[in-house]
Amino acid sequence: MNRLDLLDALLDAAKRAGAESADALMGSGTSLSVGRRLGKVEEIERSESDTVGLRVFVGSRSAIVSSGAIDPAGFARLAEQAVAMARVVPEDRFSTIPDAPTPPDSAPLDMDDPAEPGVEALLARAAAAEEAALAVKGITNSEGAGASWSRSHIALATSRGFAGAYSRSSHGVSVSPIAGEGVGMQRDYEYSAAVHGADLADPAGLGRAAAERAVSRLDPRRPATAKLPVVYHPRVAGSLLGHFAGAINGAAIARGTSFLKDAMGQAIFAPGISIIDDPLRRRGLRSRSFDGEGQTVSRRALIEDGRLTTWLLDSRSAAQLGLATTGHAARGTSGPPSPAPSNLYMQPGALSPEALIADIGLGLYVIELIGMGVNGITGDYSRGAAGFMIRDGQLAEPVAEVTVAGNLREMFLHLTPANDLEFRRGTDAPTLRIEGMTMAGA
Question: pLDDT digits over 1-52, tens only?
Fold first, then answer.
């Protein structure tokens, strides 16, 4: 039986057990990863997994059961357990299984690379990254380099008429060199992830970039506390989009626990700024042909010309707010759906990163963030940071052990993007400049 036939059999078992409606999700995957440090292989790991989850509804009550054994002989027992659990849990009038939508016409997403690299190919990627890093003057050690490959298969079927499946591959390579000696050592890292191996960044280039940055971070200072412009390197700039996505998550809006709960239609960012969520991007790291409830997905401008246009909604949060789902349900086999973005990014601005900082007399350029000091209710923001001072429009001495603080509402309004957007992480932003933040140092 193929995956969708197996899910149909599980849904039939749920109906026989007394479920009024149900959905079933199946995930299977294979992964291979290697680790290397200072020329020696430290890890080779291969894993395979199969899981299935069943969600059943009895009236307004629901329950979920999951299993790592996909065996039709056990479906009846699994369904009976789920229905028995559903009958004793509290009612939830907002939680339902939505009707299947009309399938849209869409271009192929090209999410499955047919090439499967072996151990030797992955070790070669890791070796290229680490050897390039170790060749940089000033590098004294290594935390290692790694490479990985995986392929997963997702299938979803509901008693409301939806059935769909897709496959996804993933390739990755990472490296983390160390510069300096003793207590003065500094580390940095680089990585690349892609759906197709051909789209990975050059491993040697990653190694050199990480090593050069590690060397440049030696002998950091701890500057005096100041209020100044803060510029975020792209690898940390995406974290600000993550905070934004959390603030417009429909579950948080329905609970009233977001600092943006009353902001629909308001100017959240400066005019001209747009933030896009695009689950249909070809070879996107988080692309998908349907969401976790089998609903239609589409490209959406969450922020358009600075204004908030929508929440991220699954069917439950949409029902709580009296709205329609936006196709942002995400889920695993052991939990209910919840809203989440897909390929999220901020559109680039007009200035180069160099031009963005050219007029800054004194500022901070952040390349690493530490901790998660963000209050989702008030928007207050405070995170440890490391990077470089900006003096007279140029990067200057390295700094560490500082804190950058502000309020996300104010930060968003005073944010300017550069023109260097690259799709590398699933949540992506160009270099970002934010005015008037507090840097707490010595």
Answer: 789 999 999 999 999 999 999 999 999 999 999 999 999 999 999 999 999 9
- Per residue in 325-364, pLDDT (tens digit) is 999 999 999 999 999 999 999 999 999 999 999 999 999 9
Task: Note if the pTM is more than 0.85.
Answer: yes
| Whether residue 176 is found in the same domain as residue 255 | no
Tokens, residue 257: 């626990």
pLDDT tier for residue 104 given thresholds of 50, 70 and 90: low
Mean pLDDT, range 64-93, rounded to an integer: 94
Q: Are residues 178 and 62 in the same domain?
A: no
> Does some domain include residue 107?
no
- Residue 106 pLDDT grade (very low, low, confident, very high; cuts 50, 70, 90): low
pLDDT digits (tens, 9 = 90+) for 355-396: 999 999 999 999 999 988 899 999 999 999 999 999 999 999
Residue 184 lies in domain: 119-156+163-216
Q: Do 193 and 275 belong together in one domain?
A: no
How many domains does the chain contain in total? 3
| Residue at 355 is within a domain | yes
* b/e map 255-275, b = 16+ CB within 10 Å: eeebbbbebeeeebbeeebbb
The verdict on 255 and 385 lying in the same domain is yes
Cα distance between residue 80 and residue 63, in whole Å: 11
Q: Which residues are paired to 173 by β-bridges?
A: 147, 192
Take residue 177 and report the two structure tokens written for it: 């060199």
Co-location of 136 and 249 in the same domain? no
CATH code for position 194: 3.30.2290.10
Does residue 112 fall inside a structural domain? no
Angle at 294 between CA 290 and CA 296, to 5 degrees: 50
Q: Are residues 199 and 239 in the same domain?
A: no
What is the predicted pLDDT for the residue at 1? Answer: 72
Q: Kindly report the CA angle at 149 between 147 and 150, in degrees rounded to 5?
A: 150
